[in-house]
Task: structure prediction
Amino acid sequence: MLKLAVLGLLQREPLNGYRLKQQLEMFMSCSICVNYGAIYPLLKRMEEQGEAILCAEQGEEGGQCGKVYEITPLGKTTWYQEMLAYPHESWVNMRSRFFIKFFFFSHLLPEERVQLIEHRLMLCQLRLAEKKALEVTDDLYQAKVQKRAVEVIKSEIEWLIEQLQTEQLQLAQTSTSVSFNRKNF
Result:
């Protein structure tokens, strides 16, 4: 998940580890927890795998030198494949992964965005059915947590439906525009 986020940010601009951590915390802190102990080894692995290259070293505050990384064509391909993948993982990780993907939706085609939203919506609807099927406990606090979990899933479903409608409208407008342009030739 961290790799997906890092590759996505590197598509916007070359960054060093410090700036990557800042941007991850600023834009994705609700979805991912980041520390330098994870970022620097990841950048090194991505460099070894050809997904990122060291493009410069900059002097930083305190006289330290920061290695600036840039995404490669292979890194862009890896990022794109991970954006469209549905790995088997925990509910919490699936939710975080979706929000990281959503952050980078502008880099995808409308059809791909629709597909990802529909998949997430289906997962949320299944999860809601599971939560509703759970036997209500007579423990007041456990019951409150179960109720809150259902509310959170319902809220996400409503939001996903809104996003899906927006994407489908955009997709319909694009299709209409393309067919109109073809008729005029």
